[in-house]
Specification:
Layout: H1 3-15, E1 20-24, E2 27-36, E3 41-43, E4 46-47, E5 50-57, E6 69-72, E7 75-77, E8 85-88, E9 97-100, H2 120-132
Antiparallel strand pairs: 1-2, 2-5, 3-4, 3-7, 6-9, 8-9
Length: 135
Amino acid sequence: MRTRIEQELALLRGAYPEVEHLESNGEDWFRLPAYPFPDGWRMGDNTIEKSPVVFKLTATYPTAQPYGFMAPNGINFKGAAPGNCGLVPTSAFPGTWIQFSWQPDGNWEPKSEAAGGSNILSWVRSFAQRLKEGA
C-alpha cells in the first residue's frame, strides 16, 4: 500500500473504524458498511438511516481529485431514482452498485501532510452534501 494511502486510511478509520480497503488493478477501493443517509432515502420501500457506500481512488491520487461514490442498486429518494447516477459494471467489492456522479464544490488541495488540506476523510464527508440534495 502506498504510504499516502496508508496515512489517509488511518485518518478515515478515526471517523469510520469499520472502513474496508482493497487494492485492485492499481486502484484503491474503500467500503464503508454503514454510511449515514439523511431523511428520505430508501432501499425499495424501506426507509434507511445508513447504507454501504463504496468509492475508489486511482493511482494518480492525491494529485487527481477523486470522483463519484457508489451505493447499492435500488436505493432511492422518496421513491425516485437518484439523478446523475449509473449502474457500475464492476467493483472490487461484491454487490450491484450505482455510482453517484459527484465532486465537492471548491478546490481539491491536498497538502504534503495527509491530515492537511484535501484528503480521503474530507472526500468521504462530502458525500453527505450530495445525499442532502435528494434525488
